[in-house]
Amino acid sequence: MSSLQEPTPIVRRPLHEEAADRIRDLIVQGQLAPGTRLNERLLTAQFGLSRTPLREAFKVLATEGLVELLPNRGAIVSQIDTVRLAETLAVMGALEALAGELACRNATDAQLNEIRALHYEMRAHHARGDLAGYFKFNQAIHLKIVKYSGNAVLNTTYRQMNGYVRRARYMANLSRERWDAAVREHDEILAALGARDVKRVKALLSDHLAHKLASVLAELGRPVAEQAA
Amino acid sequence: MSSLQEPTPIVRRPLHEEAADRIRDLIVQGQLAPGTRLNERLLTAQFGLSRTPLREAFKVLATEGLVELLPNRGAIVSQIDTVRLAETLAVMGALEALAGELACRNATDAQLNEIRALHYEMRAHHARGDLAGYFKFNQAIHLKIVKYSGNAVLNTTYRQMNGYVRRARYMANLSRERWDAAVREHDEILAALGARDVKRVKALLSDHLAHKLASVLAELGRPVAEQAA
DNA sequence: GTTTTGTATTCTGCATGCAAAATGAGCTCT
DNA sequence: AGAGCTCATTTTGCATGCAGAATACAAAAC
Question: Is a pLDDT exceeding 50 seen at residue A1?
Fold first, then answer.
C-alpha cells in the first residue's frame, strides 16, 4: 500500500457542508440581507435536499456568527450591529498585525511578489475610481498577507471574521480622502513587507485597521469609539 | 406590555446545545481523550436524546475545532497536534495583548480588584506547590482580563481557542523555573494593569504568552519554533 | 376604529426509518 | 502463518413523520 491508493480520495462531500457554503456565500455577498428569515421548506426546495442536513448547516453558520438561531422560530441572517462590527474590526486589527509580523518572517519572495501584483491591480482600480474593483483587490491583499503568515489557525479565524465584516463594506461609504489615504497606507505596508521590517509592518497594519475601524464608526456615527483600539 | 411580561424567558433550551455543552466539557476537561471515537448510538443512550440533535451538536463542535468529522466514519475528538497548538498560542498571544490594552482602558477598579484577588489566590497555590490549583486561578485571571476588555467578540474567540489549548496543559510539564518565572510575570502584569499602563501591559502579556508557547514547544521538542511569534 | 380572542395554518424540534458505506469475522488459498 | 476475499453486522447520512410552538387571520367585543 504505497503508490496507487487514492489518486483522488473520492469521498462525497456531505450535503450539509455544501449547503453551508452556499448559504454562507449568499450572506457574505449580501444577497441575503441581514434580518432575512431562512425558511427551511423554501431552502430545501431550492437546494434539493432535506431538512436534516440544512438544519445542520444552520448550526454551523450560527457558530460562525452569520446566522442567528431563534428557538422555535428558526434562523435569520444575523444583523450587522455596530458594536459587534467595531469589536470585530478591533480583533482583526490585532490578528492582522500578527499576520504581518509572521509574513515578514515566513513569506517567500515569490509570495511577496504575488501580493505586490495584487497591490498594483488595486492601484489601477483606484486610479480609475472603480470602488468595487478596488475592494476586491484590497480584500485579496489582506487575505494573502494573513495566508502567507503560515499560521493556519490565524488564517481561518481571520477569514471567518472577514465574512462577518465584509457584508458591511457598503455601509462605510468611504470618502475620497479616506480612500486615498488607505491606498497610501497600502504603499507603505508593501514597502515595509518588501524590506521585511517586522516592527514597521506590524505598526502599519495595526494603524491601517484602526483607521478603517474609525472610518466605519464615523460613517455609522455611533458613540462606541471608546472601546476600540 | 411593560412590566410583567417575562420574569424568566422560559424558552426551553434546544437539545443540541445541551449536548454540545456536555460534550465540550468532557473534551476540554480531558475526560474524552483526543482520538476517541464519538459513537452516536452510545451517546444518544447516555444523554437520552435522539441522533438528530446529537449530530447537530457534532457539527458545532467541529467548527469549533474540538471534534473532527470523518465523512461516513463519524466524529472523533480532534488530536492536539503540535503545530496547531503552537499556532493557536501565537494567535492567543495577539488576542491577549489586545485584551490587556482594552482592559487597561475599560475595566473598572472593582474589576481590577477581582483580578487582583484571583492573583493572590494563585500565588497561594504556587507557594504551596499546588499545580492544579495554580492552573485553575491562572486560567481564571487570563479569562477575566479578556472578559474585562469589554470586547465580546474578543472574549468568545479567546475562550474558544482556550478550549482547544487547555487540553494540552498537562503536556507542558512546567519546570519549577518556568513556573516561578510565570508567577513573576503575573506580578508585573498586575502592577501594570493597576497603573493602567497600556503599553506595558500589552508588552508583558505578549511576552508572557510567547514564553508559554516556547515552554510548550520545548516540552514537546518539535522544531516548529520558527513560525511562532 | 381599535383591541382582543379564537382558530386554522405554517413552521420548527426531534424521533425514527431506510439505504449506502464502513467495519470486522470467518473462510479460502497460497 | 499470512494475505486476500466474502458476507454479516454495525454505523453513518439523509429523508420523512409527528407533536408542539408560533404565526396569521378573522370574527367578536369594547
Answer: no
HSE-up of residue A101 (Cα within 13 Å, Cβ side): 19
What angle do helix axes B40-47 and B51-64 make, rounded to 10 degrees? 110
Q: Which CATH superfamily is domain A82-227 in?
A: GntR ligand-binding domain-like (1.20.120.530)
Distance CA(B200)–CA(B192), nearest Å, equals 6
* Nearest alpha carbon to residue A146 among A132, A134, A157: A157
Contact at 8 Å (CB) between B92 and B209? Answer: yes
CA–CA dist A65, A161 (Å, integer) = 9
Distance of CA A4 to the CA centre of its chain: 38
Q: Going by C-beta distance under 8 Å and a sequence separation of 6 or more, which residues neighbour residue A66?
A: A23, A24, A27, A28, A77, A78, A163, A164
Note the CATH number of domain B15-77: 1.10.10.10
Would the Cβ of A51 be found within 7 angstroms of any atom in strand C?
Answer: yes
How far CA A168 is from CA of A210, B153, B206, in Å, comes to 16, 16, 31
ipTM: 0.86
At A36, is the pLDDT very low, low, confident or very high (cuts 50, 70, 90)?
A: very high
CA gyration radius for chain A? 20
**Chain C bases closer than 7 angstroms to a protein Cβ:** 11-17, 21-23
State the sign of the Cα–Cα–Cα–Cα dihedral B175, B180, B185, B190: positive
B37-89 pLDDT tens trace? 999 999 999 999 999 999 999 999 999 999 999 999 999 999 988 899 999 99
C-alpha to C-alpha distance for A86 and B153, rounded to whole angstroms = 9
B157 to A102: CB separation less than 8 angstroms, yes or no: no
Question: Domain extents for chain A?
Answer: 15-77, 82-227
Q: What is the pLDDT of residues A18-28, one digit of tens each?
A: 999 999 999 99
Asked if A151 lies within 8 A of B56 by C-beta distance, the reply is no
